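Dear colleagues,

As part of the handover before I leave the project, I'm documenting each prediction I ran so the next person doesn't have to rerun anything. This entry is a single chain, and its sequence is reproduced below.
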Amino acid sequence: MASIARKNLFEDIPRFLVAQAGIMFAVSLVTIQIGILHGFTRSTGLLIDQSSADLWVASEDMVHLEVTSPLPLEQLVKVRSIEGVQRAEALMIRAALWRAADRTIAPIRLYGFDPNGQLFANWKLTQGNITALNTPYTMLIDKAQLMALNLKQVGDGGSIGSLPATVVGLATDTQSMASSATAFTSLETANAFSTSGLRSTANIRIQNGEVEVLNNVEAAPARSSKNPPPAPRKLSLSDSITFILVKAEPDQDVQALRQRLDAALPGIRTLTKAEMAQQTRDYWEKRTGVGFILGLGATVGFVVGMVVVSQILYSSVADHIKEYGTLKAMGASDWIIYRVITEQALWMAVLGYLPSMALCIGLGTWTMAAKGIMILISPVTAAGVFCITVVMCVGSAMFAIQKVTRVDPAIVFKA
């Protein structure tokens, strides 16, 4: 019976190629949509996963990594004094505006941290060194964001606000697909960048015994290369940060330390690294509708594949209806004929899946290298897509089988 299935499949090569093209399109669409969804959600928590902190201390208002209320720096001092804390470091996240050398602008997300620290910057560098961030007004970026910031190489620069900014290194696998281009700097430089470019003035007017204060915020004048800016000021305890990363002492129970932190610092939340990453990913996947849209795209691909395969199989059965009638006239049971059609569908599934998966893996490699867009195709994803492909093709075969069940063996004697 297997030879009949293969003969029916390969006897008409143009039809076979059309069928496989349809299956490849459907499988590729499903795989890419699922891969983008997994890559998107993974990228939103990359920086959390790459940290070596046991606990993240955040404001009780925190929604996810980039949406939270600030914490005063004095909280860091309190955290370091709590029993069981081996190390605590500050992390500052700020939004800013990048201006390239040709005056084009782009949004940028600043991550300020201690370049000599141990808990945050554990990502891979392709060029440069993290300690170079100790130099004022320097930054590291993901190499995939060079084009987005209109840069070509390490050493190029631009400005943030009224301050110069120079790229001293390139990282890899750090960029969230949900965020603006990411720049890593020291805490002092990040604070200076986030407050630069603006100056405020206050005019006081007294009229009829009433005091009226008129505040005016305007852009600060750009600095010339002949007048370099002073070094960023040291942070004070009143300055705000975004998170406190905590490393527990060896053999310290993390949950017990978490409870002590929550008790000692009102208005904060303490999360483990896994909880922090999961909360960030859940926000983007579930609360923004991204998961629904990409899931809808995968469903459309599945439906398209079923329609294509069912049409091909149905047409194949119709072309060989007399052969199936002959088999039934010779005493072949319906199950034997069903096996022929089902095996034909399985061949179509395998031969459509393999090139599609190779295409998607190649596409994912290219998009990550060229654009920093992650299409994550894990072994579990690949296995799941294969099962979907088999279900799609075998399910489509059910429509063709319905025609065979109504075949009259006497059809072989008709002209």
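The chain has eleven helices and 14 strands. The first strand starts at residue 55 and ends at 59.

All the best with the project,
I.
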